[in-house]
């Protein structure tokens, strides 16, 4: 135990110095210390996603992007060790995971990432991380202008019908685009040759024009999509394209962040309860909102807490509420941090801070 404490103390000091030199807020002295810090990638980590093992949650994996030309997807175990990777990609940005895409009669778990410089999204099977997209699915076809086809943010929405059949959609953001159609939604389908294709089924999303839209998260159970309109706030829409309803349901966190609104993670405590966590990037903290809204309004997301963490300039995040065993009995929050790493936080440590600020 003494050795662990010393390592974490050294980590905290280094994090403090790094944040000071970057011009961002220093890591707070009372910041939550990560339970695990992953091994480093080659270039620049950006966004993580959690894959849950179907029979043994302790064998679950974290998939994260290394955001640079030549970078790729890295797969980590729950101890933060790199166990697989695909590199040589054209600047992968955000990643998300979905379960049970039907391909040739088989249900396949997938990781999907934007590949910014190739103007594509890439599909990989899990847990083996094999490409199943015939080189990628082109996105934002026909758009012109700098950054208009540069895929950045991405989240997957899974819709199940009464028979339990899943339809999986990729909601994709970009470096820049017009307000009203900034986000494009693609239905993913398996083909006879074992690959995956994508069809545009929807274009939506208000954009302030202040910076960009990168972080996107979907609440499958409640059917909502959230995205960070950086330096403006978080916008909320229905996730189901079949509803044909592009009404903006909420626009919150407008005055809460120090500057950029970044990574979004959803931690669920029940069918409709839990938390929406938003990276307050320049403050090295996570803003926390009620998943189910407030005062009887499911779209009234008022700030509950602002939890300081040791992650520096966090871009992307993910959370899970399952017992992963060992150090994560109530799940975890995974956050990107400067230093080419991801942080795993025992959820109990985050919950303690939320509870303390809610009192």
UniProtKB/TrEMBL annotation:
Pfam families: Phytase
GO MF term list: inositol hexakisphosphate 3-phosphatase activity
Domain BPP: residue ranges: 17-354
Stored InterPro entries: 6-blade_b-propeller_TolB-like, B-propeller_Phytase
Source organism superkingdom: Bacteria
Leader sequence segment: 1-24
PROSITE patterns noted in UniProt: BP_PHYTASE, PROKAR_LIPOPROTEIN
Alphabetical keyword list: Signal
Descriptive protein name: 3-phytase
């Amino acid at each position: 135990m003494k050795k662990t404490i010393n390592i974490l103390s050294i980590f905290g000091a280094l994090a403090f110095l790094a944040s000071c030199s970057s011009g961002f807020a220093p890591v707070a002295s009372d910041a939550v210390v990560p339970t695990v810090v992953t091994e480093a990638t080659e270039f620049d980590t950006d966004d993580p996603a959690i894959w849950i093992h179907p029979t043994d949650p302790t064998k679950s994996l974290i998939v994260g992007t290394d955001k640079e030309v030549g970078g790729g997807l890295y797969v980590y175990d729950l101890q933060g060790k790199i166990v697989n990777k695909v590199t040589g990609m054209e600047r992968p940005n955000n990643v998300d995971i979905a379960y049970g895409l039907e391909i040739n009669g088989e249900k396949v778990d997938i990781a999907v990432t934007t590949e910014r410089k190739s103007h594509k999204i890439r599909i990989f099977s899990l847990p083996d991380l094999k490409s199943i997209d015939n080189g990628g699915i082109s996105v934002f076809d026909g758009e012109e202008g700098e950054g208009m086809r540069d895929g950045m943010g991405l989240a997957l929405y899974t819709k199940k019908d009464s028979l339990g059949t899943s339809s999986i959609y990729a909601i994709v953001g970009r470096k820049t685009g017009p307000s009203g159609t900034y986000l494009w939604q693609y239905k993913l389908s398996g083909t006879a040759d074992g690959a995956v294709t994508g069809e545009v089924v929807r274009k939506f999303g208000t954009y302030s024009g202040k910076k960009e839209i990168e972080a996107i998260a979907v609440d499958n159970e409640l059917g909502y999509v959230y995205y960070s309109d950086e330096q403006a706030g978080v916008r909320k829409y229905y996730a189901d394209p079949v509803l044909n309803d592009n009404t903006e349901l909420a626009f919150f966190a407008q005055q809460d962040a120090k500057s950029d609104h970044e990574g979004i993670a959803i931690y669920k405590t029940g069918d409709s309860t839990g938390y929406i966590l938003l990276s307050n990037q320049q403050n090295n903290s996570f803003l926390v909102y009620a998943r189910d809204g407030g005062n009887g309004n499911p779209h009234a997301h008022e700030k509950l807490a602002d939890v300081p963490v040791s992650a520096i300039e966090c871009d992307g995040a993910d959370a899970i509420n399952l017992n992963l065993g060992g150090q994560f009995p109530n799940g975890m929050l995974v956050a990107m941090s400067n230093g080419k790493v991801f942080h795993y936080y025992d959820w109990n440590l985050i919950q303690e801070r939320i509870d303390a600020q809610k009192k």
